[in-house]
Fold:
Amino acid sequence: MLTKTTERFARLQLAVFFVLALFAWVIWIPQAGYKLGLVESAVSLRSPLNALTVWSPGLAAILLTAFSSRRAGMRRLLGGLGRWRVGFRWYLVAVLFEPARWLLSVGIDRLLGSGYALGPMPVKVILGSGPGFMIVVAVIFTLPNAIGEEIGWRGFALPRLQARYSPIVATLFLGLFWGLWHIPAWIGQGLSTSVSSMLIRVGGLVATAFVFTWIYNSTRGSLMPVVLFHAAIAAKNYLFPSLPTHTDDVVLFIFVGVLVLTTRPAWLRLRETGADALAHEQAG
Structure:
């Protein structure tokens, strides 16, 4: 178990990590203000500087780990990216979960009589008259962005939270922070600012965080499947038109509910292995 000194240090590290992850707001809040007409200028949504926002969790994790645990800690933090022998089925889950959810949701809507027409691929709307190969480039670039976030969220924060709390509590906390973290970005992108829309988006990310934890814990802390899952989410948002219904959200909430209920013991117990690993890291 964690000693009191190690636990206090871990708690401080987590607090500093979440504060540093908010560096993204330095760019996102002005963008949101510009969209709302509150400021006269902001970093363009197409600027390469936006890469700093999605990498803020990863950079925070790398900075804190390098400061506290140096080379050994960095090996453990980044080692999850090289832990790829986790079973082929988890790569299938990571890559196919989001497209399957979208297709299932469209099918349910059709069965229920919703006759809406699907819009164009979002990436084509973004690119306008840009060359077709940029679609491939856009999808490929979801991978480095996913690495930047997942080194922080699942590589650094989740195991530390699970060293102190059960997976269900850790996931609820991390998912809620992750959702609130995105709010200025959503406003800057011009998405609806209504309370109901924001609650649905934040709730969707909390539910998605449960899928991330399920994959992460089932693969013994491998970052490769969670990075691919994160990239698949972004790629789906580029390639699949958004649905005018909330069926896809309902499908996600039902899946997570069934997942937690059917694997309840795994979500309620304290992960001693995570605590032991964290104690070892701090001691080293």
Remarks:
- Residues 4-283 form one domain.
- The first helix runs from residue 4 to 21.
- Confidence is low (pLDDT under 50) at residues 272-277, 279-284.
- DSSP finds 15 helices and no strands in the chain.
